[in-house]
Amino acid sequence: MPKLTCLTAQLTLLTALTLTSCSTTSVEQYEATALTSYTWQVKYANNLTNAPQPRIESFATALVLNRNGLKPAGAVIGPDAQGLWWPTLPPRPSIDEVEQRKKPQEEAGKPELQKTVKYQITYGVGEQQKTLPTNYDVYRQVVKAFPSRIPLELTFGLNDNTVEKAEPVSK
Fold it and tell me: Is-cis flag, bond preceding 79, omega within 30?
């Protein structure tokens, strides 16, 4: 009986993987974006050294939208080692601003500059356009293919909610 249960579990898992497996599509219309940002954040807690999850407050943010690897308007830093352009640094929060958000009994940490990138790809499917989150590798593949408009084969993640891979279509 235990062997049958194990086999049933394996078949159930295989069926689930098949139903949610990754799909692919070839596209000729596409663009990739990388939203680069700097944000000042401060941690607050009753005891910063022992707090498992301190409260985090965000202050000033600066953003730049990179599109297909081209230098965006407003970019002043870059391109960096990954070919991304960055905005000017937002103003650091003053001690008054930091203390203003402090609750009674809390300590405030030092302002820390957070650097983030959010990647997306927009592609055409018939008359529709879809935009999905992606990763650095897909962004770079689009940057290389875009000037020549090389068709790409996109591989989607679980439930087709992300683009995990982009490869040139060989003719």
Answer: yes
**Spatial distance between the Cα atoms of 30 and 59, rounded to a whole number of angstroms:** 34
Per-residue model confidence as pLDDT tens digits over 42-58: 999 999 999 899 999 99
At position 55, the amino acid (one-letter code) is: R
User: What letter represents residue 10's amino acid?
Assistant: Q
pTM over 0.85: no
Of 59, 65, 61, 104, which Cα lies nearest the Cα of 85? Answer: 65
Q: Which two tokens stand for residue 160?
A: 């087709």
List, in order, residues 6 or more apart from 9 with CB less than 8 Å away: none
**CA 140 to chain centroid:** 13
- Distances, alpha carbon 44 to alpha carbons 52, 58, 96, in Å: 11, 11, 15
